[in-house]
Amino acid sequence: MSSPVYDCGQAHRELGECLNHFLYQDGKPKNNIKNEHTYEELWNELESIRKDAWESYSDIADYMGWE
């Protein structure tokens, strides 16, 4: 069984890695080679981030007794 705090931290790390690969061709912002995306792709990525953020918050809120 995993810890909600650990899971929340992992979710943040996965989000950062996902954004690196979405934004940069080699997944590395330091090289600054940006991917081109359509409006629809950008919107879908933003919607995915929104959903993931609320799921992560819900998990930690349950664990902390906030909900």
Please characterize this protein's 3D structure:
This protein is an all-alpha fold. It has helices spanning 4-23, 39-64. Helices cover 69% and strands 0% of the residues. Helix 1 (4-23) runs antiparallel to helix 2 (39-64). The longest helix is centred in the C-terminal third of the chain and has 26 residues, at 39-64. The model has no long low-confidence stretch (mean pLDDT 89).
Mean pLDDT: 89
Rg value: 15 Å
The computed structural class is: mainly alpha
Helix content: 55-70%
Oligomer: single chain
Uncertain stretches? none
Instruction: Give the beta-strand count.
Output: 0
User: What general outline do the C-alpha atoms trace?
Assistant: elongated
Largest pleated sheet: none
Give the N-terminus to C-terminus distance in angstroms: 21 Å
Strand content: under 5%
Order of helices and strands: HH
Number of helices: 2
Would you spell out the secondary-structure blueprint of this structure?
Layout: H1 4-23, H2 39-64
Helix pairs in contact: 1-2
Sum up the structure in keywords.
67 residues, 2 helices, single chain, mainly alpha
Describe the structure concisely for a colleague.
The protein has about 70 residues and is an all-alpha fold. It has helices at about 5-25, 40-65. It contains 2 helices and no strands.
